[in-house]
Amino acid sequence: MKKSIRAYILPLAFLLFFLAVAPLGFVALEEMSYFDGLYLTIITISTVGFSEVKPLHEAGRWYVILVIVVGLATVSFILKAFSESIIEGQLRAVLGKRKMDARLRKLEGHTIVAGYGRVGQEVVRELQKAKKNAPFVVIECNSGIAAKLTERNILNICGDVTVDETLRRAGIETAKNLVSTVPTDADNVYLTLSARHLNPEINITARADQPEAERKLVRAGATHVVSPHALGGARMAHLAIRPNLVHFVRSIAEGEADFSVEETIVSESSALVGKTLIELNLPALKNVSVVGIKKPQAGLILSPKGDTIIEQGDILLMVGEEVALMRFAETS
Question: What is the CATH class of 2-100?
Fold first, then answer.
């Protein structure tokens, strides 16, 4: 669009200059006032067919021909620039939509972020900072915000999150996670119900502003319910009571420390199945430690003992160097 603007700024400036200067020719050739010359210049360029202010001499008529040629050429050039700008914008929008749809069709195991308000922006920021591949798509009902997301090359859909067709366009059937950040509890509950119906296996993290909404969201099928106000208050309290611990945890989560935390799911074909933690020989992996195991039936086990047997479906919570964690995750 900026390129198109530059294309017609120069001819537009020339037209204004021409309208200011051309009347001087009539003043000199026909002894008119400047206003009469301006009037005659404008009706000549616009070809409205009004009669001249006064009969013209031969020199004046030749000058009228010159004004018509130069004026119409300039106006035509401006109109051409405007039309090209409109067509270029429409073409860019069509091609952009096709490109966006092609990217959407390839999504699988991705995260859907519903809403791009203050909470949604933070979610997107964290997903962008994730060190491992974390594909995501944003659903936003505000067309202006959606356009800005497109300019930033952030995959998005402009639509109503409570409409099933919008969720299907976002790939709800193949998505791994849904993060619902829409501002009203009613919409969050409705979205959770729809998403759970369309994909019974999806992990749903929903926002709740009111305490009673938390229970409704759980009943609707939310895997996790988060209250931004409660989290903010808890973090402020922890910063007041134990600030160093908060900074330590944040540095790990944001990847500022020399080591990081990771979780991995033990698959059926994993070489880890049936082994104990001692048999994994974790010290050889450069400070990789399993600090927790979440078992499908027994729940979360913190600081598991060395004789704990790893089973299919276990989720291992690990701390260690990033490269070593990635190498360990490949074996699971």
Answer: mainly alpha
